[in-house]
Amino acid sequence: MASAIHPSDPLAADGRGWRLAGRLYMAVGYFFLVLPIATMIVFSFQKGQFASIPGQGWTFQWYGKLFDDGTLLAALLNSLIVSPLAATGACVLGFLAAYSIHRFRFWGRGAFSVLLVLPVLIPPLILGVAFLGLLSRIGLQGQLSSVILTHMVVITAPAMAVIQLRLGQMPSSLEEAAWDLGATQFQTLYKVVLPFALPGIAGGWLLAFTFSFDEFIIAWFVSGFEQTLPVAVYAYIVGSVDPSLNAVGSIVFALSMLSLIGVELLLFPILLSQYRSGDD
Amino acid sequence: MVAADVPQSIPTGVPEAAATAGLNSLKAVGIGVPLLYSLTFFAAPLVFLVVLGFWLVEDFQVVPALSLDNYLDIAEHMFAKSNYALAIAQSLWVALTTAFFAVLVCYPMVLAIVYVAPRSRHRLLLMLAVAPFWSSYVLRLFSWQILLANKGIVNSGLAWAGFENLQFKLLYTQIATRIGLIHYLAPILIVVLYVTVANIDRHLIQAARDLGATRWQAFRRVILPMSRTGLLVSTSFAAIVSFGDVLSGALLGGGAGASVLGSVPLFSNMIMSEYASSTNLPRTAALAMILVLVMVLMLAGGAALAERTKVDAG
To answer: pTM higher than 0.90 for the full model?
Structure first.
């Protein structure tokens, strides 16, 4: 990134009008970005079934209904089984792949990394049909494990990318020192590389978790009756207008804000820090 | 994804005996496990998808075959009954216009962040822009439903504020589909474009200004050309995502939302609803293959167009 050599911005040095326009534009843009989320939170506490302005008074009834009804809650639990496991699997695969690419020169190395990144470039709709096609031939469709196995394919790439960024910051002298001191390959991996990569793995895990938690169409195809949250929510929306959905949305948003803070703490330092030489 | 190419020196000194211990098994596990997983659960399903398109359903059972029936049947219904051709046209129209407007809306946003906001605020502003991405997409679309409904929040809010005559009929049109998609794409596009624009050397802009370029000329001659790659990448990314998306078209477009092309469903929605009603997997596979084909053609067209504009600009 260009460093701030000029204290005054070249584009805005004397342009008050431009600055004002830019600020206004940003305000409108952020309003648009936040609008549906704010709506969701506000109207999860509003009495009327059909949201409108002015409001019709405050209530907790939709949260209560959510816990009484159970279908969405069951789906939320399914998702809370699927996504952590899929994210963990993706991190194992992602770490192994990232380390191999980082460490070894081997035939087909480029193709190897392309193969692992490719799933995010293919529309999930296509993958959903493809996964169901194969899984149904081997009797693996319609279970939570089918969602886990297929989500892992798609979320390995983001996890791997973050871990690669972290490994790229690892000074090679670190591993060499371990070998010189008599550590075996596996000891070095376990005691030196893994601890160093841990922030990257954690950041990658959160990213992978978020992708899996929000993934719809693949789960729609392969999950059968074991619906994950997005699939159950979709079925619910198509069926009716129910502010309970706002309640789910608010809960999910609160959960993901927690993971966003986690990402902020883990991911951004990795993305922003430069390569540091051996002494840390 | 970028870091893959960081050159990493392999220790050249002769390794100790201990160091080589397990080197080959480490290599085998490190490369073998991800490779095997990828081949089994990613490559194999895709290859099988191609094969599956030639299989048939008999007595509710999928049976292996080498038949063109699925494709012939789809070809027959291109302009009749299901009208696949219209759905493909609708998808292309919605995806391309969505991509265009999404980038058109996000680019000035990024310019404002980079050139108007103080540098110390950039990180916060980016965090804020990315925040919606972490909330559930399906639930955000539900939120847009209650915002855009005929008696929804936008319209009732306008009426409440005294604008009874200013009412919008947006829900279950492809305009609503685009709104949902643009909201979904915006965080990603803002990050991609931010990386592009923030990396433009400010000295160049300063030089242009010093040499007497107006603010507009500096933008037109320096910033815009240097954003070209970022703009092309984000436009094609937005087009691909929009083309393959099912949720916005189903929930905001209402399945067969109206556009200038008429009330025609998106091709992706058609694939999903046909599978839901028929569970005919081979036929769905054939439709999916057609979607892939159209998408590849769309990308090739885009690449050709980009090449032409490059020549024009040069």
So the answer is: no
